[in-house]
Amino acid sequence: MAKKRAKVFRRIRMYDLRHACATNMLAGGASLKAVSEILGHASPDMTMQVYQHVSNDLRRQAVDLLVPNDFP
After folding, report:
1. Rounded CA gap, 55 and 53, in Å?
2. Which has more confidence, 50 or 1?
3. Cα 64 from Cα 72, distance rounded (Å)
4. pLDDT > 90? residue 65
5. φ/ψ bin of 71: left (φ > 0), alpha (ψ from -120 to 50), beta (otherwise)
6. Helix H or strand E segment including 1
């Protein structure tokens, strides 16, 4: 029904939605502690282990802000 209208052809699990939500919260600037608490993780360390890729992307964005595009 809704999946067909949205042209989603693979099964979407609750885990996928949870992962997408957490990734978007972190990428949007939410604090690691807040996201960790929302997900019910025992500690922010656990959240970082699962969502390390988001942290790497945010670090790259931060460095890009410091270094001008025309830097040799």
Report:
1. 5
2. 50
3. 13
4. no
5. beta
6. none
What mean pLDDT, rounded, does the chain reach? 82
What pLDDT is attached to residue 42? 94
Separation between Cα atoms, residue 23 and residue 50, nearest integer Å: 10
The more confidently predicted of residues 4 and 45 is: 45
Residue 58 has which token pair? 């945010």
Task: Please count the CA atoms within 13 angstroms of the CA of 38 that sit on its side-chain side.
Answer: 13
Token pair of 34 as six digits: 């807040």
The structure tokens listed for 60 are 């790259």
- Position 39 scores a pLDDT of 93
Helix axes 14-27, 32-39, angle to 10 degrees: 160
DSSP letter assigned to residue 51: S
